[in-house]
Amino acid sequence: GHNLGAIISQYCNRTAQLRRRSSRPPLQQLSRTARPSLRQYDLETDPASATLEAKRRRLVKELMSLPPSQSSHMLLTMTLNLGEKRNLRLLPHSLLSPSSSPQGCRGLWYRLLSVLRAAQPWHYALKHIGGRFGSSVLSYFVFLKTLLLLNFVSFFILLAFVVVLQAVYPPASVSPSPFTGLELFTGAGYFTHSLLYYGYYSNITLNDPCTFSPKGSVCPLTAPSLPYNLPLAYLFSVGISFLVTCILLVYSVSRSFRESVRSSAGDLAVKVFCIWDFKVIQRRSVKLQCENICTQLKELLVERRSRSRTQSRCQCLGHCMVTLLAWVLALGFVSGCVLAVHYLSECMHMDSGTWQQEAILLVLPLVVSLLNASMPYFFNLLAKWEKQDSPVTQVYVAIIRNLILKMMVLLVLCYQWLNRSVICSTEECWETCVGQDLYRFMVMDFLFTLLDTLFGELIWRLILEKRQKTKRRPEFDAARNVLELIYGQTLTWLGILFAPLLPAVQMLKLLLLFYIKKTSLMRNCQSPSKPWQASRMSTMFITLLCFPSFLGAAAFISYTIWSVPPSETCGPFRGLETIYESGKRWVLVLEKSNPNITWFAWVCQHLLENTCLLFFISVALIAVIYFNVQVVRGRQRVICLLREQIANEGEDKLFLTQKLHSVYEQRHR
């Protein structure tokens, strides 16, 4: 029964209300005489006095002030005929003015931001995984993406300042061995004298014209104003790579702590009433968001059930005895694995004359990778025997046991590498041999990961479906797979000094792992039977990557630079007592060339070489991180207290309401 003008006025008011919700200015900036609903909006107070054309123009202006998606949706839901909607769409072209150009630029900017966000690596794939399998499985792929970023930063620094320049100015050519294909697994042979390893790099100033002059002759040219010292660039590139990685890791740890606090503050009511994203309008995205919300609700319910369970004293005592016995067995098996690795490496070093074939070099990496792949299944059997109620506790225990195994094995290997206990011929650099060892460990770890994916997921799914005729599928063990990533990244950081292109190998490995694991997850695995929130797990994963992994690799590299003498016949630091001596010589040359910067030499001498100062700086850094953790925990306690206070206030209000009802009933009687 409404005419066209009334309908247009009605939708104009709706559009104005929608715009005011998102762009209403603060009340302090407006005059007191204006009505709050009509301030600074150029709206008429009496819509009945306006003509039909004015109402139409006003509606078009309001539609133009909205984002494009809301404007299109509003126009689509209007109860107008198609001709009137067509006129409304064509009318903005006649109303365009210079003031509308900023709005168009803003819409273009928002569209560009949405495109950039969607263009992030694996954006939709991560959403699909999180919605179908939950945050516990998603944490593995997010962690893999973080490692890919860290390796790209290290690779770019070394490529730009060392690898490319050495490739432009190659050293004296050495007849390479013929390529047989076995080098892809051993890293030796054809790859020995290549840019992949430390021994290929020279110790010269690359753009010095006197470098390539014959021996005994006088160089007729003057020295360049900016000589490029390759040993110094090699040392500084490795140091800057570790420094940038440390900054990124500390930032990731702090951000992960903040996210864990936010997620821990969530409740079922918040998840039910406040989690839906109303900007999602595509059917595919809506389905993903529904699956994600259902998985998050399952995770919260499982956590609440595990907290509400109570045990008697006898049950607690029996559970403690079983846990203690399981830990004794786990530590005993770890000790046996470490001793086996130690004796095997010693035997290979003692019988180095008979172990020179390239295929035999894969024995130690094969044994270590076999232990790293098989021991987690033994730990899973112990976990089933322990029968932990909370899935989070079960994951924590599995992480600690696997971490102890991997770190102890790496400690034994690092000790042998620093003592020159590597299988290496007299013509080769011991640094190159260490780099080859680390390359073999990385390749063998990748191959065992593929075998575990094949037999542990694909073959096991086929057995369950074909033989046992069940719809169950193997579950994706996120904690064990994340520890495998941390182990591989530790190998990369340990070998970055001995093989500058090792981050590129790690990047290729991570790219292949993402697509292989994603395909296997979608086709062979099911959602976790005990869902658990991975917010705290993600914080623990990035913390483990920062402290045992990165800190241990940085200590190993620092000790090698400061204390271990390099090879005398090869590498960029040949002829020096230590690698750090190249930096000291550069400081002395800098001081002699320009007496005005003697302060820089003093700073290097009293700061970088002062072990006490470095110790206090490390203690201060650890103290800052510790206090940040304590602040986060303090905020969590405050949040818990505020929740209790809100619950108590609600109970008080309920009690007072019941009292008032009883008083009113007594008066009524």
Automatic annotation (TrEMBL):
Keywords in alphabetical order: Membrane, Transmembrane, Transmembrane helix
Keyword Amino-acid biosynthesis annotated: no
Comp. bias intervals (Polar residues): 25-34
Annotated InterPro entries: TMC (IPR038900), TMC_dom (IPR012496)
TMC domain mapped to chain residues: 429-535
One GO MF term attached to the UniProt entry: mechanosensitive monoatomic ion channel activity
Location in the cell: Membrane
GO CC terms, sorted: plasma membrane
Annotated spans, Disordered: 18-46
Family note: Belongs to the TMC family.
Protein name according to UniProt: Transmembrane channel-like protein
Gene name as annotated: Tmc6
